[in-house]
Specification:
- By secondary structure, the chain is mainly alpha-helical.
- The protein has one domain.
- It has nine helices and no strands.
Length: 248
């Protein structure tokens, strides 16, 4: 697979082609919360307050998943640049597996601590109940979020920035369409209120992951994810962790 474009392309076009899709992807990712806020605010003031209380924990989940994803990105790019295909494949496979495990752990931990977290910021029983209703559903999609972000970084490590941008846009567009349908109940869908916002967001994230998987099958990046590469390699794990959580 030709990976010489980074050495042959002119600097300015290369920087723009690599950076602009990433900027758009990050902007689209931030739209999830904005879109949810817009529609949930039309339900009630308490629903909007509940959503605002959950957002910091959602952002924490994203931050941890993105941080580890950056470590995977750096590891894959390093090994590809060194011509070590086997270690690049191992880094991608271990990264995807551990991202999924992180997602499961984050979902379990955040769901357990949410009652204590919410009681620290609000004494309103309705707000707390609505926040638990939303978070209990939204956090179940944490493994999907973590795995989606991992694939985003895998494609970015190979210079496939447009794939990342397109996949994020697909998920966000689905969220925009599903939010009013599932919150207010349109057509065959029942009115689910704030729970509908959680489901719409989760389905949007599932669509993003599905887009990544389709691109992986149809336009495979220069790394392979397979069971044969799922072997514990201390050097790879140390490298990915070091780049994900630098000491300074």
């Amino acid at each position: 697979m030709d990976q010489t474009f980074m050495k042959e392309k002119k600097i300015l076009p290369l920087v723009l082609s690599m950076s602009l899709p990433m900027v758009i992807s990050m902007a689209v990712n931030s739209l999830y919360n904005i879109i949810d806020s817009y529609f949930v605010a039309r339900v009630s003031e308490n629903a909007m307050t509940a959503l605002a209380l959950v957002f910091p924990v959602q952002n924490l989940i994203n931050a941890i998943a993105i941080g580890f994803g950056i470590g995977i990105n750096a590891g894959i790019a390093f090994y590809l640049g060194a011509g070590d295909q086997d270690r690049a494949d191992k880094a991608a496979t271990l990264g995807a597996f551990l991202s999924f495990v992180h997602g499961i752990l984050l979902a379990a931990i955040c769901i357990m601590v949410m009652p204590f977290f919410l009681n620290s910021f609000s004494s309103n029983a309705e707000i707390t109940s609505l926040a638990l209703l939303y978070s209990g559903r939204a956090f179940l999609f944490s493994p999907v979020i973590a795995l989606g972000l991992c694939f985003e970084k895998i494609f970015q490590a190979a210079g496939r920035m447009k794939i990342s941008m397109f996949s994020m846009i697909c998920g966000c567009a689905a969220n925009i369409i599903l939010d009013p349908i599932m919150i207010f109940g349109i057509g065959p869908f029942p009115s689910m209120g704030i729970a509908g916002a959680a489901y719409a967001t989760g389905i949007g994230q599932c669509i993003t992951l599905l887009a990544y998987l389709l691109f992986y099958a149809l336009r495979r990046p220069p790394v392979k994810i397979g069971r044969q590469y799922l072997k514990c390699d201390a050097a790879i794990l140390k490298s990915c962790t070091r780049w994900a959580f630098p000491p300074h």
